[in-house]
Design a protein that fits this description.
This protein is α+β, with helices and mostly antiparallel strands. The protein folds into two domains: about 250 residues, FAD/NAD(P)-binding domain, CATH 3.50.50.60; about 140 residues, no CATH class. The protein is about 35% helix and about 25% strand. Helix 1 packs parallel to helix 15 and helix 4 packs across helix 15. The longest helix has 22 residues. Bound molecules: flavin-adenine dinucleotide. Flavin-adenine dinucleotide binds next to helix 1, helix 2, strand 7 and helix 15. The site of flavin-adenine dinucleotide has 37 residues, from helix 1, helix 2, strand 7 and helix 15.
């Protein structure tokens, strides 16, 4: 029996659900607040669309932190390899970059999206843009369409409304109170893959804001004593830090700030050299020049790296080769706040695991399913975000088909 299903949210998660449900023969109507679909997906394609990752599944699934077991149900059925196959089916080639990240061959999102929307339309999926969901009662949604109220009833609903980062692209988190009113458990939406605020001295702010910090390693000590270390680079900004290396620590730092008001990282300014090697290099020659020239001559360190040493340590700590070597490899930096959710790559929080069943149907709203970034999981950059959006979209679509059949 053909049923009518509405998908609210035309991002990658919603469209994936739409595809599966339409393939099962149901009528599918996709609604979105914006004039066109997948605006965030298109933006993600601007700097090079990293759509998934090629690493082995056991490592891949652990990227979802404490939600790995939950997401396994979705991602194991549609992992990085399956996603690549699916992309190839849209006549888009992919390649694995040197870091293991997977990209469309031309690095762009637009050709993939164009082919996908064409296929969806040709299969019979209908799109209703400029429809903002403002209310939901069971399987009946209320939309604002250019100032006019429209009420739509369906046999099943998929919500794929995204998180709350970059709200001008459509996902603004306005759905949170709508679902909470229905008794759905929603964890607060918070910044993820984000920069952080720190309190720099005036010297660092005026002389070094905007400077890249390259070839360093950050370490974070978790509550259980385990240390997470990653190498890379980031940018020292006027009020904190931005860039890929700090983004990779955002869950740890944010959770630390939430618990204690601030959280610290340790920076190793020369991760390729051991402390003993540094002592040897520093000890060989007595400084005849200024401290910064001495560091430059012996270790090739200058600019913002030297400034960070002065920021944190006093002269006495930096006086001996042993003391200096320890400082170079252990610069503590403290952060007190995440950058605003509007400016960050993704959000954490959302509809809680306890609020949905194993096929992502909201437990106290039978027939209403959830998918994508609006669910309460997070992941670092590297293609893990989109993979989970596609995979949960696909699982919710399967869930709808099973539920309508049963
Ligand atoms: C700058 C940037 C770069 C990124 N780069 C990457 C990357 O390289 N790799 C990666 O894996 N991820 C990347 N991401 C993250 C990725 O784009 C998102 O995780 C993904 O788009 C989320 O998909 P979604 O379908 O859950 O939600 P979204 O893509 O946010 O789609 C949600 C849709 O719901 C609609 N909507 C919201 N509220 C309503 C409402 N009330 N009524 C009707 N419609 C509504 C919105 O208009 C939107 O179209 C990037 C994100 C940003 C911001």
């Amino acid at each position: 029996m053909q049923k009518t299903v509405i998908i609210i949210g035309a991002g990658p998660a919603g469209l994936m659900a739409a595809e599966g449900i339409r393939a099962a023969g149901h009528q599918v109507h996709v609604y979105d607040a914006k004039p066109s679909a997948c605006r965030k997906f298109l933006l993600a394609g601007v700097g090079g669309m990293n759509i998934t990752h090629s690493e082995a599944y056991p490592e891949f699934i652990q990227r979802y932190y404490d939600k790995a077991d939950w997401l396994d149900a979705a991602v194991s059925q549609f992992d990085g390899n399956a996603l690549r196959e699916w992309i190839h089916g849209l006549d888009i080639e992919t390649f694995v970059g040197s870091s293991g990240r997977v990209f469309p061959k031309d690095m762009k999102a637009a050709p993939l999206l164009r082919n996908w929307l064409k296929r969806l339309r040709e299969s019979g999926v209908e799109f209703h843009m400029r429809h903002k969901m403002v209310g939901l009662e069971g399987k009946q949604a209320t939309f604002d369409h250019l100032g006019e109220t429209r009420v739509v009833k369906a046999d099943a609903v998929v919500l794929a409304l995204g998180g709350a980062s970059w709200p001008k692209l459509g996902a603004d988190g306005a759905w949170v109170p709508v679902l909470q009113e229905q008794g759905v458990d929603v964890a607060e939406l918070q910044s993820a893959n984000c920069g952080f605020y720190s309190e720099w001295s005036e010297h660092l702010q005026t002389k070094f804001s905007g400077e890249p910090l390259k070839g360093v390693a950050f370490s974070f000590t978790q509550n259980d004593g385990q240390v997470v270390t990653k190498k890379g680079e980031c940018i020292v900004t006027q009020d904190g830090m931005e860039g890929s290396l700090i983004y990779a620590f955002s869950k740890y730092l944010r959770d630390g700030i939430n618990a204690d008001g601030s959280a610290s990282l340790t920076i190793d300014l020369l991760p390729l050299k051991s402390e003993d090697e540094l002592i040897k290099k520093l000890g060989n020659t007595k400084p005849k020049e200024s401290f910064s020239k001495y560091l430059k001559r012996t270790l090739g360190i200058s600019g913002v790296k030297t400034a960070l040493l002065h920021e944190v340590f006093d002269k006495q700590q930096l006086q001996t080769p042993e003391g200096l070597a320890t400082c170079l490899k252990n610069v503590p930096v403290s952060f007190y706040k995440t950058k605003p959710i509007e400016e960050v790559i993704s959000s954490a929080g959302g509809v809680c695991e306890s609020g949905v069943n194993e096929q992502l149907m909201i437990r106290n709203l039978p027939g209403v399913f959830c998918a994508g970034e609006m669910l309460d999981w997070e992941a670092p950059t590297g293609g893990y975000l989109l993979t989970a959006c596609f995979a949960t979209g696909r699982l919710s679509g399967k869930g709808v088909v099973d539920w309508l059949r049963d």
